[in-house]
Amino acid sequence: MTAIAPDPKHIYRFSLLLFILVLPIATLRGQNEPSSDWQLSGQLQSRANFFLRDSLIGAANIPQYDYQLFGAENWLNLQAGFRGFTLALRFDFFQNSNLLNPTDSYSGQGVGAWLLEKPMGPLTLSAGYIYDQIGSGLIFRSFEERPLLIDNALVGVKLKYQVMPDLFIKAFAGRQKRQFDLYGSVVRGFHSEYFFTMNRRGQSISLAPGAGVVARTLDDGSMNNLVSSLQTYPSAELFVPKYNTYAATLYQTLRYGPFRWYAEVAFKTKDVYIDPFAQTILQGDTLTGNRYRQAPGHMFYSSLSYASGRVGLTIEGKRTSNFGFRTRPQEALNRGTLNFLPPLTRVNTFRLTSRYNPAAQELQEWSWQGDLQLSLGEDMTLNLNHSGMQNDGTTPLYREWFLELSRQGGEKHWSLGLQRQIYHQAFYEFKPGAPIVKTITPFAEVSLDAGQDRSLRLEMQTLFMNRGEDQQLNDYGHWLFALAEYNPSGKWKFAVSDMFNWKPGRFSPKSGNRSVALHFPRFDIFFQPGTHLFSLSYIKQVEGVVCTGGICRLEPAFSGVQFTLNSSF
Amino acid sequence: MASLRFHLPALLSGFLLIGCQEIPPLIQPIAEVPATEGSESALVLVEEFGGVRCVGCPAGHSLIKELQGIYRDKLVVVSLHTGSFALPYAENRFDFRLPENDRLLLELGRPVGYPVAAINRRLFDGESSRMLSPPQWAGYLAQAVNRTTPLRLTIASTPSANPALAACQVELGLVRDTLLPSLQLSVMLVEDQITDVQLTPSGKQPDYVHQNVLRSWLTPSSGQPVPSPTRGSPGKFSFTVPIDPTWNRDRLRWVALVQAKSPTSLEVLQVSGKKM
């Protein structure tokens, strides 16, 4: 009863054959037929890293720095459309890549995704690698985040039926992708959304409710492995695992004049998960560490926003209780996730204000955010933001207060502000004994537009760190960051920046027993002729938590030269 | 039509829940596995990777201890300190890192995090890596302990004239005639009960007792080629290793393993451990 994964070579050959068959016809027909019949397009995304070893900052002891010296990732997307048929094909190439595992090298190539889609009246049929989500993704989201090499496509079939113009129903079934292979568990789901609008006292009211159900059946291999593990547990910890787990969600968006209210509530039946904080007593010792547990879960998320001419206000809240949902319980970190837990903390863009990012928690989380945008005149805006995250404990996990005053208009744009963060480093980064980080970060940005596509942008930030009980500065201590970006024309852009650890802290790199004040410079050249964007960068980057689309990973330091190309054709 | 808007989604959702009743898997708690029996019984090698800065490693060590309580002499455990987590603290008495550990890590594949363990250096069905995280150990051990092999591997300490050296002889034999692929033999020296600093969830613990610590490789980590034995004429291989004066001889043991290597497999066929 072992699930049989399709041979990646067969998928590769089948996809290639399909595309080879379609492409010449498409090209020939495309030259002779009206352009409305055939649409061909593509995108290439390339990244090449030349690794330069720097053991002082920690850019060492992985194959790329030690002897491989080079790594690359390429994604080539091709889309062909003909009379309602759509064929999408993506080739993925990884050569000594450090994206999958930042401390290892990964090589592989093949068809990363393909999709065949055809609308037939109210019914749309999709087969292949499906990217989709239900609601805000609490129970299901298949997505791709290339910077973290997350590709959770569901490989299967999706049917969408437009029952009425304002109501659709959708059903899908498949297995989750794992690089060029598939996980064994089977996932199936149903999703429906309805849209309703009316006028009341001259104000438009719209309501968009939706519902979804997803079920996952564990494959025999995963279940056998799980059972074998459970059989070694003491009887007090034993449970009978379920093959099938069901997750359901109900959500709605209500708009009334300047107000918008979104609410989603989701439940999950008993599911097996790994509890990294489990306390187990073994042979008289109390141990903290990974143990399988089985429990149901729930989640609630809501946001209320108000937007008028001068004021924009958003309030969000989220409660999570055991809501990780994976293709099998053996997976950890960002692997094998079927759902997406949206982060409620502010998405910061400046280098130093985004140094500390709290990852969304699967087991227990309360989080909240309030954001106020005030227009202070014609071109002046004030932004106030507060966000926080907490589990069931009393120690603050994360708090942020953010204030920014900005002026947009004319030839000069500027903004300045202040950020205050409290970050439980020991909790988020598994660094025992690391004191709670408290930072104050003032920042400023100026943009000067000289016309004819010429511009200059300057950034300056300073991060002031608190001290621990031993009077040492926490984490890396104080930082200074400066950036200058110059656009001499629409095609070229040059940037130079430096992140300077001017007062090192307890975890700063050391030479001997002494912390060293290090520079992390970066030089970039961008060139954009038409639809191609080239970049060449020299980068020294400190280790830190990198978040993309709300998903975070602790990334080691980087040192090297990077070339990228993004091209559309 | 209006009722269709509300009833159709509910109706279709119901289809997903049809057949919610399932026959659950059978869980039979394993209290203790009988001692090794049978001439073709294969022992299981567990190579645990971690370091003194690896906060999750003490929990991994305890899990190994728990599994050893169940599988007893069927398991041969070796703890390898490697990676950035193995960099000793200033307070550490020992540096447990060995260059050969890093080479083995490269051969088996670097893990995403620590602790991890390789079980018989095998890539199990459904896995993309030989490096398994703690929740997977018990499951794959249950598979591995039932394996058999015609290979018999024994180790015996041999006298050494030089007190700074230790010597052993490894004997590789067959219990029945069979064809074998080319074999690689690896031999290691392991020390138990070393008290030294270890990072734990409550901070640095100075009196942490490290078990199964790999002290020395007597062969390359990838093994040395040995001829396939035949029944009745076992292969005999002698090794000598310098003993550091800080090591406790009473707590040292030899570990030998035999692998059948191919472009797709590194699987350990037999392993043996013996106190010095």
Explain what the structure shows:
The complex is a heterodimer of chains A (569) and B (276). Chain A has 569 residues and is mainly β. Chain A is 8% helix and 59% strand. The N terminus of chain A is likely disordered. Chain B has 276 residues and is α+β, with helices and mostly antiparallel strands. Chain B has a domain of 180 residues. Chain B is built from four helices and 13 strands. Chain B starts with a helix and ends with a strand. The model of chain B has no long low-confidence stretch (mean pLDDT 84). At the A-B interface, strand 11, strand 12, strand 14, helix 3 and strand 15 of A face helix 1, helix 2 and helix 4 of B.
Provide mean pLDDT of chain B, rounded.
84
Rg estimate of chain B, integer Å: 23 Å
Shape of chain A: globular
- Uncertain ranges of chain B: none
* Percent of residues in helices of chain A: under 10%
Question: How many helix segments of chain A?
Answer: 4
Portion of residues in beta strands of chain A equals: over 45%
* Helix proportion of chain B: 10-25%
Radius of gyration of chain A, in Å, reads 26 Å
Structural class of chain B: alpha+beta
Distance N to C terminus of chain A: 46 Å
Main sheet properties of chain B: 5 strands, antiparallel
Let me know the number of strands of chain B: 13
Distance between the termini of chain B: 83 Å
- Output the number of helix runs of chain B: 4
Overall pLDDT metric of chain A? 87
Question: How would you describe this structure in keywords?
Answer:
heterodimer, A: 569 residues, mainly beta, two-stranded antiparallel ribbon, 35 strands, 59% strand, disordered N terminus, B: 276 residues, alpha+beta, five-stranded antiparallel sheet, three-stranded mixed sheet, 19% helix, globular
